[in-house]
Amino acid sequence: MIGVGIIGLGTVGTGTYRILTEHKSLIKEKTGLGIEVVRVAEIDPRNIKGKQIAGSLITGNALEILNDTRIDIVVELIGGIRPAYDYIVQALRKKKWVVTANKALLAERGDKLFEIAGQNQCEIGFEASVCGGIPVIRAIRDGLIGNRITYMLGILNGTSNYILTKMTDDGVSFQDALRNAQQLGFAEKDPTFDIEGVDAAHKLSILVRLAFSYPIRMADITKGGISNIEPIDIDSAKEFGYRIKLLAVAKDEGGLIEARVEPAMLPLTHPMSNVHGVYNAVYVVGDKVGPNLFYGRGAGSEPTGSAVVSDIIDMAHRIKNKNNFVKLPVYARGKKMKKGENSSVPYYMRFTAQDRPGVLSKISGILAQHKISISAVTQKGRKETGYVPIVMLTHEAVERDLKKAAAAIDRLSFIRRGSVYIRIEEGGL
């Protein structure tokens, strides 16, 4: 019998407990493993009420799980950095294997935790930390191990994807879409981590470590949010044959790593442009296998709990068979980060300018001075204020040059400040 202790009985903890108990016989039938939930630690009585868990299993003290000799695998599902970090360290030092869904902790302290795991011949399972029930961690780490992965494209945050889908389908503003997401429970009261790309960046850092064997830091990832996206940008994207998504993009160009999370335009022909609502997806390109698409529910009690259980079962097999091999990140030498300002892609740009002769030629001149050429341009109808939106696409441009040009244009007397520029990501097609 393999004993499991769960710390945290929130959304994911409840799903994990339910799967392990309701499917106990199914797991035994499929794997030959007897897996038993020995203890559950939860300090909030509201998370216990109505969940039909025997009182003898519940404790308000996580240390009881860490010190219980019957427990082989500790499941950390409380989130945050502290005390989750301390619990995992103590579990590893007591030779207990660990499963976690804590993407923020892995992004910020993962390298130290994996070092401690290696010292104690234990493993940390983290399938549930990225994209909920989608088995993308195992696919990259195991299924694509014979490939050099060169490109990844992810829609990793369901909240922001729901908001952009609502804006696209219903033509509503960002604020109205956010309010709707909050009413439905898809967005937190404080949605900053979701809409500003922080949550997706946490997840991308985990994927980059696995796919590119590089110890990326959060500071290495260029981050941007979706709060300045307006309906005119959504509509203009459609007219040009694109859809706006909050994309996590990572590239390995001969050992030069680029990683960024920000709104970008994807061609309507790309499969990732059709990932709607709260769904997540990861598009991975390997040098031997080509493109692979992983799609599904990126959050929720049972989808994420399913990913936790998959790690538990994988570990249980090896613990039972006394297999001392543990899967730990191995980093390649000679790789380094590419500065975000050196990145080069086509861009969408939107300016709000006075409707008078010579405006477009002045804007074009500044872009030309910064080595940026225009591939398409439209000018919308005149507004009562006398200002009109000018929307354009550029050919491939260096980000550093693009930002300088946009700043120069914003300083023009006939331009309203707050111009928008959005990357165009061709998506590895």
What does this structure look like?
- The chain is α/β, with parallel strands linked by helices.
- It has three domains: 149 residues, Rossmann fold (3-Layer(aba) Sandwich); 162 residues, Dihydrodipicolinate Reductase, domain 2 (2-Layer Sandwich); 85 residues, 2-Layer Sandwich (Alpha-Beta Plaits), CATH 3.30.70.
- 36% of the residues lie in helices and 26% in strands.
- The protein contains 14 helices and 19 strands.
- β11 and β12 form a beta hairpin.
- α1 packs across α2 and α7 crosses α8.
- The protein is elongated and about 80 Å long.
- The two termini are 48 Å apart.
- The model has no long low-confidence stretch (mean pLDDT 93).
Keywords for this entry:
Dihydrodipicolinate Reductase, domain 2, Rossmann fold, six-stranded parallel sheet, 14 helices, Alpha-Beta Plaits, eleven-stranded mixed sheet, elongated, 429 residues, alpha/beta, 19 strands, 3 domains
